[in-house]
Amino acid sequence: MSTLGPRRFRWLFGSVLALQAISGLASTETVIAEESLQPDPRHENIGELITQFIQKSHYLHVAVDDDLSSQVMDRYIDELDRNRMYFLASDIEFFEQYRFDLDDIVRSKPLDPVFEMFDVYRTRVRERFEFALKQLDTEPDFSIDEDYQFDRTESPWAVTSAELDEIWRKRVKNDALNLALAEKPWEESSDVLRKRYSRYLKRMQQIKNDDVFETFMNAFAHTLDPHSSYLSPRNSEEYRIQMSLSYFGIGASLQTEDDYVQIINIIPGGPASIDGSLKPKDRITGVAQGVDGEMVDVIGWRLDDVVDLIRGPADTVVRLQIIPAGALPGNSDKEISLTRGQVKLEEQAAKSNIITIPRDGRDWRIGVIDVPSFYRDYRALSTGDKDYTSTTKDVKRLISELEEEGIDGLIIDLRDNGGGHLTEATALSGLFIDNGPVVQLRNANGRISRLDDPDPVARVAYNGPLAVLINRFSASASEIFAAAIQDYARGVIIGQTTFGKGTVQNLYSLDQYRQPEGDDSFGQLTLTIGKYYRVTGESTQHRGVAPDIPLPSPIDADQIGESVRETALPWDTIQTTRFRAGAPLDNTIQSLTVNHSARAKEDPNYQYLTQFIEEDRESRSQITVSLNIESRREQREANLERALKLENQRRSALNLEPIESLEDLEDEDRPDVQLDQAAGIVTDLAVLREIQTVPPQTARIAPDS
């Protein structure tokens, strides 16, 4: 204890007293065991360095002061106990003494309060899971009518341990009920849960000092905006491995959310992307090796341990048990089988096909180019290889091939395209618009730069009827392209409002900004340093790109997107830059919308989708579930029956044979309603163009270079 400074000793002593007072611990030995985590001296240096970066380079030029400290406090508590299942109201009250100290702590002062707060959290976690383990001594009575509130994010903090006991009694009962619904006997269910809870306790014991520091620094960074973050040395190396694609996995980014490992996004060209079954926000509950390996329950596991299970030799099978995004607790888990492999560039590449639309005794041929990401092979480019792979080159080639086959219109499908290289977004825009600006960027110093069509003398690759299909997962570079097409009146934007990610990040390897002092790494910082703006001066940030003609989507914009993130930077505007747009499409869009609405009313697939979305969102609005097994069975059967009825109504309207079970559905039976509707709209556009009621969508065509 003699190595601690006076203030650090005061904080540590205060924490010991608080733990004894608020948790009723019987002995000093237990308290000392909980005090094993403590800040490393280099953590203070890292915190000071990150603070300097934030003050100098973050887009908002945030003042690290008491106001920010208060926000960081709330964010840190939220990072630790978002669902309010561990802390007591007295814990939150105890933390108040540090509310306006955290700004001083990250700048120069000891980090002990951060670790003390985590120690209280770890103590509460231990208490809760020890209580949960005791509940497994007796089989729950599933015939009692009572409910479990699984979403407590807006609930008040529990005041007493007895109140938490009741919350956790129901949680354990719900966990057991989920297994009982899977026809597991109590002996097996209790064994599964005992292992799960014990593993969670072990996981807490394995937490290292860097883990605590990273959690806090991310709370600090996320207070600024959702895309700024800090990675510890261990996770920086993990990031490097992922970016090098030098391992074999499933091609998905993961993060922990409460007790679950959750899918953040699917990497184009990876096994999960090719299979198509795994979706963002799905939660992984189990991992099994091979076709018939035992399913290992991974609820409560560390993220890196789950990743280790998912990774493996190329061309081997890994099976995932998941809870689909938005599913209520207790709904049937879904099993997905994937073959491990590297992200394949050829699978990541743009692809094309033709949809035939019968209209007025004629077959209209609508070309579709699916662009999964904005990619460019910089390694090949740097070696002078003129045949380097890029989105723009591939799309230009596909357009040429489609026109040789004869198309009446074109759809660029950007659904689920999370972005990529900015240079490709501007170059792709140049295939459809004449020379001019594509996007504006404003940096943290207020300096505005403009990115133009990088090949202004090249011929426009396509000047026929054009639509861009987007959804909520279309982000970043996708939004830049869609916005340019919309602002130049070059085509019609169809689908769902995009994600709204209009910020620019820079990655700093912190080791480059410190004096050499041993082998310990400082990790890396990702910081938001700028924002994108359309040529009109409007930001794509927060609001995204709104479609000219909206389509229903199963992706809930109230749950996903920049606008639902508390610390997202706001939408704003800068001055419009000079650009030459085509003739306004307002009247055309109005006509297209009328025709589309009339068709949608008669389309069984469209009606099916809208009804499915309505029922799905209604079920996801619930925050409680019944703990009566018969009620749960009835609810599950009712959900399945309703889904089957809805599917058979669709099939009947299309003169298809009904199915007896949803398991009988084949992938080819599932219509792509959005793409079909977009093809119909582009056909309308082609018809209008043919009878010359719409002016050409592009101005002049520049001569070949």
Question: How would you describe this structure to a colleague?
Answer:
The chain has 22 helices and 19 strands. The chain has 705 residues and is an alpha+beta fold. The protein has three domains: 6-224, no CATH class; 246-339, Pdz3 Domain (Roll), CATH 2.30.42; 347-515 and 530-603 and 678-690, 2-enoyl-CoA Hydratase, Chain A, domain 1, CATH 3.90.226.10. The strands form four sheets. Strands 3, 4, 5, 6, 7 and 8 form a six-stranded antiparallel beta sheet that branches. A six-stranded mixed beta sheet has the order 9-10-11-14-15-18, with helices on both faces. Strands 2, 12, 13, 16 and 17 form a five-stranded antiparallel beta sheet that branches. Strand 9 and strand 10 (362-370) form a beta hairpin. The model is unreliable at 1-35, 242-247 and 696-705 (pLDDT under 50).
Total number of helices: 22
Which class of the largest domain in CATH terms?
Answer: Alpha Beta
Nearest-integer average pLDDT: 86
Distance between the termini: 76 Å
Query: Which structural class do you get from the secondary structure elements?
Result: alpha+beta
Over the alpha carbons, how many angstroms does the gyration radius reach?
Answer: 28 Å
Fraction in helix: 40-55%
Count the domains.
Answer: 3
Tally of strands: 19
- Sheet of most strands: 6 strands, antiparallel
